[in-house]
Amino acid sequence: QVQLVESGGGLVQAGGSLRLSCAASGRTFSSYVMGWFRQAPGKEREFVAAISRSGDSTYYADSVKGRFTISRENAKNTVYLQMSSLKPEDTAVYYCAADPGRYILAVITIPTKYDYWGQGTQVTVSA
């Protein structure tokens, strides 16, 4: 099992930046595909970004491509989401998630494929 704890959320003006972190417990962090999802009030949870076990492959939702960057440091059991050029529509609770399966583009965007979730961190972008 793995436990995930997000941090780094907050209030930022449009155009600003934030860096989210997700710290994982356990010794097998490098065996998990990691993803970031977000959920705005009244909306379904949506995929943001994912990264392969080694970190050499990444994938982004079209809505964040070119603005957000996912990365990981397996030695520190941590995955990051660097968010730049933030927009009010990026406002949501952001969750990190861990998937013990393979890094397959067809499924890494699906929330139900991830076995473990953090508690979420609020990101609010003001206009």
General description of the model:
The chain is mainly beta and 127 residues long. It has no helices and 11 strands. Strands 2, 4, 5, 6, 9, 10 and 11 form a 7-stranded mixed β-sheet that branches. Strands 1-3-8-7 form a 4-stranded antiparallel β-sheet, with no helix packed on it. Strand 4 and strand 5 form a beta hairpin. The radius of gyration is 13 Å and the shape is globular.
Largest sheet: 7 strands, mixed
The percent of residues in helical segments reads under 10%
Structural class: mainly beta
Shape, principal axes of CA atoms: globular
H/E order of the elements?
EEEEEEEEEEE
List the helices and strands and how they pair.
Elements: E1 4-7, E2 10-13, E3 18-24, E4 33-39, E5 46-51, E6 58-60, E7 68-73, E8 78-83, E9 92-99, E10 116-117, E11 121-126
Parallel strand pairs: 2-11
Antiparallel strand pairs: 1-3, 3-8, 4-5, 4-9, 5-6, 7-8, 9-10, 9-11
Summed up:
This protein has 127 residues and is mostly beta strands.
Note the main attributes of this structure.
0% helix; seven-stranded mixed β-sheet; four-stranded antiparallel β-sheet
